[in-house]
Specification:
This protein is 41% helix and 13% strand. The protein is an alpha+beta fold. Strands 1-2-3-5-4 form a 5-stranded antiparallel sheet, with helices on one face. Strands 6-8-9 form a 3-stranded antiparallel sheet, with no helix packed on it. A two-stranded antiparallel ribbon has the order 7-10.
Length: 346
């Protein structure tokens, strides 16, 4: 988020210091991520340490709190998991918000620079390991299960009238509104056609923006806010789509990924469903952000930039819809749309 959360940062720093027994020297707001209910800070301590703090309005899901540590315990070393407080538990209440504290991983997201050859192999190894971890009864009880019942279309419909009447969105909606409504229809059509498939643990947002690395160093996988039990295509969509990151997959990178993941070909209808549903979910989220009266002009402009990029991916130059329910998606200019940017280190 570009806009700060509107909390007293002195009280926040004191709360972090008390909850995790840290001598906090500085609290630095990080304008990263596009989740309208979550914000990030870097916590600097007097001994030179650094931590990554995530602040969420409301509560983190039980799966977001418990799954990362479970995966680390099962040897998935790339997972960045929250740190437990000295008195136990990872999440901590702060007024109307909840806090999670993570180790701070040096380096940046790989959305812009892309993955090196070695990292493409590790990307495959990580997902193969993640998808093979057996569920414990405790994690199964808190991990959501795929239903193919997206609420993004309803959210789009609820915002359509306000978008059409908005000074900020009126011209956009005139051009792309019909295409976005047809995208919602496509999601519904694909949902009834997806084949049965085994369910595995999925990160559900594992694009390059949530991969952190220092140069060609090891991968650190962040933003475990919405894991789900679903077909592996839920994660593989981010690998095999050209919509995520500035250096998406090609034949060479696909061969490297398979070297790490194994010779598995994703199911096309599942890939198409997840790609279309992600576009629709992002559209609804960005519309809501732009229409939020509390958002700054800078935040609205940022959301409109990404919203337009998505619309250009699913519609032709004149607004003609080109994302079909037959599983074929053809961006009009052949360029990938960039979507959710890095969530940071946690």
């Amino acid at each position: 988020m570009i806009d700060k959360p509107g909390v007293d940062e002195r009280l926040l720093a004191a709360e972090v210091a008390a909850a995790w027994a840290l001598d906090v020297a500085d609290l630095v707001f990080l304008p990263v991520g596009l989740d309208g209910q979550a914000w990030a800070y870097r916590v600097d301590t007097s001994d030179g340490g650094r931590w990554f703090l995530k602040l969420r309005r409301g509560e983190f899901t039980p799966a977001a709190v418990r799954l990362p540590g479970f995966l680390r315990a099962h040897g998935v070393r790339q997972v960045v998991a929250p740190v437990d407080r000295p008195d136990g538990g990872a999440a901590h209440r702060f007024g109307d918000h909840q806090l999670l504290l993570y180790p701070y991983r040096e380096g940046g997201s790989l959305w812009g620079p892309g993955l090196t050859d070695r990292q493409w192999i590790e990307y495959g190894e990580f997902l193969a390991h993640l998808h093979a971890v057996p569920l414990s009864p405790e994690i199964a009880a808190v991990l959501p299960v795929e239903t193919y019942r997206s609420g993004a279309g309803e959210r789009l419909n609820a915002l359509a009238g306000a978008a059409a009447a908005s000074a900020a969105l009126g011209a956009f909606w005139d051009r792309y509104g019909d295409a976005l409504h047809r995208l919602a229809e496509t999601v519904d059509e694909l949902a009834v056609r997806v084949p049965a498939a085994p369910h595995v643990i999925c990160h559900a947002d594992v694009h390059p923006g949530n991969l952190i690395a220092d140069g060609d160093g090891p991968l650190h996988v962040v933003d475990w806010d919405a894991p789900i039990r679903a077909p592996r295509e839920r994660d593989l969509m981010f690998v095999h789509s050209r919509d995520f990151g500035d250096h998406p997959i090609d034949a060479h990178r696909a061969a490297l990924f398979r070297q790490g993941y194994g010779p598995v070909e994703p199911e096309p209808t599942l890939l198409s469903y997840y790609r279309a549903e992600r576009h629709l979910d992002d559209v609804a989220a960005f519309l809501a952000g732009i229409l939020d009266s509390r958002a700054s002009a800078e935040s609205r402009a940022n959301d409109l930039h990404w919203l337009t990029r998505i619309a250009e991916t699913v519609a032709g130059p004149g607004g003609e819809f080109v994302h079909h329910a037959d599983g074929k998606a053809r961006p009009h200019d052949g360029r990938p749309a960039r979507q959710r940017q890095p969530q940071g280190n946690g």
